[in-house]
Amino acid sequence: MLGCVLLAPARAGSLDRFAQFLGSAQSARAGFEQKIFDRNAKLVQESRGSFSFQRPGRFRWTYVKPYAQLIVGDGAKVWIYDEDLQQVTVRRIDRALGSTPAALLSGNNEAVKAFKLSDRGVHDGLEWMDAVPRDSDANFERISLGFGFSGLAALELRDTFGQTTVVRFTSFDLNPRLDPGSFRFAPPKGADVIGDAK
Questions:
Q1: 52 and 28 in contact (C-beta within 8 Å)?
Q2: Beta carbons of 31 and 48 less than 8 angstroms apart
Q3: From edge to edge, which strands make up the β-sheet containing 43-54?
Q4: 14 φ, ψ (degrees, to nearest 5)
């Protein structure tokens, strides 16, 4: 028994897994399923879609259910398109990202400095890392990343109102070749555009 214990590989830990992710992931794409729970752990919304990113600062989140919404970061601006409302909100990327999940996933080492990182241990078969924003004005308390056998498997975000957003990734593809055009956005004709459009 002692021999088995001595030969067992040491757990890398979520901080090491995240460092490996930062060092190796120049791009990625995956499907996702998202659930939002209120402060009483009651499910209030479910959605799903796909996401991709290309470092630094380029990302695309596409929600297909229950409502069509597209979020595109082109490296300079973030565009949010609500298809049902025919409305586009645009913000400068430095204002829009800051301490957000998108900055943590698609940013660089400078973006990571906006967070205090800690290892939360193993839960539900995943190694979890907590990232707490250093900015006291952030609209959320904590981002948690869960790493499984094949890499990043889940993301959880707890906001300042007590809501928790849980994202589970599917078919996570590391370092695929991505179309640069997928990180560009032109507002559809007739859509209302608000925010930092210039």
A1: yes
A2: yes
A3: 115-123, 126-133, 140-148, 151-159, 164-174, 27-37, 43-54, 58-65, 69-74, 77-82, 87-92, 192-195
A4: -65, -35
Exposure string (b/e) for 147-164, b if CB count within 10 Å is 16 or more? beeebbbbbbbbeeeeeb
Q: What is the pLDDT of residues 45-58, one digit of tens each?
A: 999 999 999 988 89
- Percent of the chain, pLDDT > 90? 62
Residue boundaries of the structural domains of the chain: 12-176
Is residue 97 within 8 A of residue 111, CB to CB? The reply is yes
Phi/psi for 191 (5° steps) reads: -80, 145
Token code pair at residue 6? 């001595």
Sign of CA dihedral 191, 138, 164, 72: positive
User: Is residue 115 pLDDT above 50, yes or no?
Assistant: yes
Alpha helices (runs of H) in 1-73, residue ranges in sequence order = 2-7, 14-24
CATH of domain 12-176: 2.50.20.10
Got the DSSP string for 87-128? Answer: EEEEEEHHHH-SSSHHHHHHS-HHHHTTEEEEEEEEETTEEE
